[in-house]
Amino acid sequence: MFATHEVKVSYVGGEQMHVTSDGKGNWFDCIAKRELPSLAGCFDVDIGITPATNMLPIKRLKLAEGEAREISAAYVPLPSQIEGDFLPRSAPQRYTCLIPDRRYRYEGLFRNFSAELEIDDAGLVIDYPDTFRRV
Hints:
The chain is mainly beta. It is 5% helix and 43% strand.
């Protein structure tokens, strides 16, 4: 099963984060040495600055054509979105399989955002409309 176990993020000249997960939805802040119950049930990380992390739930969920599933991901905020401690926050999302292993709809329910994602054979995003395009 695909599940995130460790996340380290450092923004240049700014905040640093180091969290771990047991792969069962329980998270720990390695810097402040504390559990993160607000992330309970999150299996995937969503790093806002890259589409690479969309691969994690796509691979883990193994959705059939037309199937959709709502999840909560540990969302790592962009520098402009950090409020208080630099930690992930639980973010409700929905993935829908449009074409198996090729095209998925991602919905960031926590921010009213939707995009159709084209992926390659490894599950990595090729095209994230208006945001990223692999060249």
